[in-house]
Amino acid sequence: MPLLDHFHPPLSERRHWHSFHNSWATYLASQLNAVLPEGYFAEANVQYRVEIDVAAFEEPGPTSPVDGWAPPPPQASVPLDLAGAVVEVGIFSRSGGPTLAGAVELVSPSNKDRPAHRDALMSKCATCLRAGIGLVLVDVVTERPADLHRELLAHLGAADPGAGPALFAAAYRPVERDGAGALDIWREPVAVGRPLPTLPLWLRGGLCLPVELEAAYTRTCVEQRVLPAA
Predict the structure, then answer these.
(1) Low-confidence ranges of the chain (pLDDT < 70)
(2) C-alpha distances in angstroms, 5 versus 21, 46, 66, 168, 196?
(3) Whether 202 contacts 208, CB under 8 Å
(4) Residue 136 has what pLDDT?
């Protein structure tokens, strides 16, 4: 189903955007769990007014690659200062939880409504990337303009790529090549009335999964009985 405008009438008057985004995150997690190998799981984390994300975690145990899909080459690659080696002794409780390996962030209106909120989201994304955690960032919020991709690269100290599309979906892969850190980037414009793209989610350790945004979005529309306005 082509992308709808969830933030302006008539749809905004008939459906709550946060309920839709909640379900979309849940179905994205379900989609990822269907292809993640043993030792990984994905779960949705929805905390309004803070964040909507789908995180992939790694658990102890064997892993295997995902067959039948290969990511396209990145559209760009910029230098990235990855976190250095850490030597420490940690004491953990058994409730400490698994290790974050990748994340999908669905931007909400409150992420864009003021500079401090955009800065908080960009800081979170930058922290993940510097730690070697792959990220997919999806902005379909039509009511508030902001170039979050450009702001994220500024947070990372990368060269200004120039103005980009108002809405977008992007994948970021932190990787080390020849002893230097780099950030591979896949960015696709998103527009109301157009299908959503499939993007690669690179998990820490090199495993890559397809994030089929359109399939999960269509399922959400069907399950919530959301149809385009006549």
Answers:
(1) 48-67, 82-97, 228-230
(2) 12, 21, 33, 14, 13
(3) yes
(4) 94
Q: Peptide bond before 228: cis, by omega within 30 degrees of 0?
A: no
Of 88, 39, 85, 44, nearest to 64 by C-alpha is 39
pLDDT at 49: 45
Task: Show the 3-state SS of 152-219.
Answer: HHHHCCCCCCCCCCCCEEEEEEEEEECCEEEEEEEEEECCCCCCCCEEEEECCCCCEEEEEHHHHHHH
Question: Locate tokens 């179905």: which residue?
Answer: 27
Can you tell me the distance from the alpha carbon of 143 to that of 7, in angstroms, rounded to the nearest whole number? 6
Two tokens, residue 121:
């989201």
Classified as helix, coil or strand, 139 is strand
Residue 38: Cβ-neighbour burial (10 angstroms; 0-12, 13-18, 19+) = exposed
**Structure token digits, residue 178:** 């020849």
- Cα-based distances in Å from 169 to 49, 79, 108, 150, 212: 21, 21, 13, 13, 11
**Locus of tokens 């508030």:** 144
Tokens standing for 105? 């962030």
Write out the two tokens for 177.
């090549």
> Using an 8 Å Cβ cutoff, are 175 and 207 in contact?
no
Per-residue tokens: 59? 């658990």
pLDDT at 139: 95
Single out the residue of 207, 165, 193, 194 nearest to residue 58, CA to CA: 207
User: Where are the chain's structural domains?
Assistant: 11-59+69-83+95-223
